[in-house]
Design a protein that fits this description.
Elements (H helix, E strand, L loop, with lengths): L1 E7 L14 E6 L10 H7 L1 H8 L3 H22 E11 L2 E5 L2 E5 L1 H12 L2 E9 L9 E2 L7 E2 L4 E8 L9 H9 L4 H7 L3 E2 L12 H7 L4 H11 L5 E4 L6 H8 L3 E5 L6 H35 L6 E2 L6 E2 L12 E8 L2 E6 L6 H11 L18
Parallel strand pairs: 1-12, 2-3, 2-11, 6-10, 11-12
Antiparallel strand pairs: 1-16, 3-9, 4-5, 6-9, 7-8, 13-14, 15-16
The structure holds S-adenosylmethionine.
S-adenosylmethionine binds next to loops.
């Protein structure tokens, strides 16, 4: 199995290299309007933004910045297939202009526009970002009534174009079954509050690029891709930054396309090639290990697991997990200066899975390890 990953360093206000109705999933995070680090990028795209900021007119600047994003959402709607999802990570902004402290509700403005465009809004995720910032409290402190609640969450807006996706033939249904997630992952991934994804650790890119791009964590993109697409689908990120969505698509055996206006990120994106094989395979191994720990805990608590996963031989809870397989990455190659190709193993390579199969057959319970001991170091 192979996937390809295409890069375009141009504005996503015009996705002219992408055919209408050809994208299965969008995973992205735009520049956040009214967060100061993005003022310049918005002002370069519309001078009126800079003027509004200069005049300290927060409401006007907010609206003008969103109009730049609106043209990307229009294009996103055009290129998505019917039944395709858009997952948009966005945070609100707080800012003082003319000594007036206010919140600028980016998530609400984007959601409203997307629904007007024709998307169906679905239940969203609140990503509770853990922050250790010493001065996270805003306002007057202990004296009422001049303090503000801290902003420690962001949103992942989830929308769909049209009705439910249909899996029409045997090959589509087969790809869907092979793309299943574990039962115990489902319970975590589909919760509406994500607490366990840390904001910054990543391992794919250097700290400076991560800071400059406000990169989201690999795990965030990887989860969304696993939740809303199947292997060999095409995932688009119209605000690619350092390429986290592309890296997660590679790890999950999906094709991807990325648009990014700032060609200063080219080196960060193509650098993904250097360690994505190790990182992805380690990540997959970790998912499998966590599953084995889950199985052991369940067996130890006297509960049963009814089904057996065919590729790995270990028990699973549901019939839907029987064909689940995590395709390890074999090779990665730059085939053009904007095109990367990844090749995968079709069947499991990780040796411990075979050992597990034997231990299950002998009804041996592996040594107890607690799930949280296996938190992945690298992501
Ligand atoms: C929040 S960052 C995305 C970070 C990315 N998720 C990552 O993990 O690195 C937003 C990105 O959008 C880019 N950008 C802003 N306006 C754009 C436009 N009109 N078209 C394409 N990219 C744009 C910025 O340069 C920035 O890299």
């Amino acid at each position: 199995m192979e996937t390809t990953h295409k890069l375009f360093f141009q504005s996503s206000g015009n996705l002219d290299k992408i055919q209408s109705g050809s994208i299965d999933l969008i995973v992205t995070s735009p520049p956040y309007p009214m967060i100061e680090m993005w003022d310049d990028i918005f002002s370069k795209q519309n001078k009126a933004v800079g003027k509004a900021i200069g005049k300290q007119d927060g409401n006007l600047a907010f609206e003008l910045m969103h109009r730049i994003l609106d043209s990307v959402w229009d294009e996103a709607f055009r290129v998505l297939k019917n039944g395709g999802f858009a997952c948009i990570n966005i945070g609100d902004a707080t800012r003082s202009l003319k000594s007036n402290f206010a919140i600028y509700p980016n998530h609400a403005r984007i959601l409203q526009y997307l629904v007007k465009t024709g998307f169906t809004a679905l239940p969203e995720i609140i990503w509770r970002k853990q922050t250790n910032a010493p001065n996270k409290f805003m306002g007057s402190g202990m004296l009422p009534a001049g303090a503000y609640v801290t902003l420690e969450h962001e949103y992942i807006l989830i929308l769909r174009k049209g009705g439910k996706r249909e899996f029409k033939n045997d090959s589509e249904r087969h790809a869907r079954r092979r793309s299943a997630i574990f039962w115990e992952e489902r319970n975590n991934f589909f919760s509406d509050i994500w607490l366990d994804i840390k904001g910054s650790r990543q391992g794919l890119i250097d700290k400076a690029s991560r800071k400059r791009s406000a990169a989201f964590p690999f795990e965030l993109a990887y989860r969304l891709i696993n939740m809303y697409s199947v292997k060999k689908d095409t995932v688009l990120d119209p605000f690619l930054g350092t390429g986290t969505t592309m890296a997660a698509a590679m790890a999950a055996a999906r094709n991807s396309i990325g648009y990014e206006i700032d060609n200063g990120f080219y080196d960060s994106v193509i650098k993904i090639r250097e360690n994505i094989i190790d990182l992805s395979n380690h990540h997959m191994e970790n998912r499998l290990k966590k599953h084995i720990v889950f199985v052991n805990e369940r067996i130890a608590s006297g509960k049963s697991l009814k089904y057996k996963n065919i590729p790995y031989g270990f028990p699973v809870i549901t019939n839907q997990e029987k064909e689940l397989v995590l395709n390890e990455l074999k090779t990665i190659e730059m085939i053009q200066d904007n095109l990367i190709q990844v090749d995968y193993f079709d069947n499991p390579q990780t040796p411990f899975c075979r050992e597990w199969e034997e231990s299950v057959m002998e009804k041996t319970v592996l040594p107890q390890t607690r799930t949280h001991d296996l938190q992945l170091e690298l992501f």
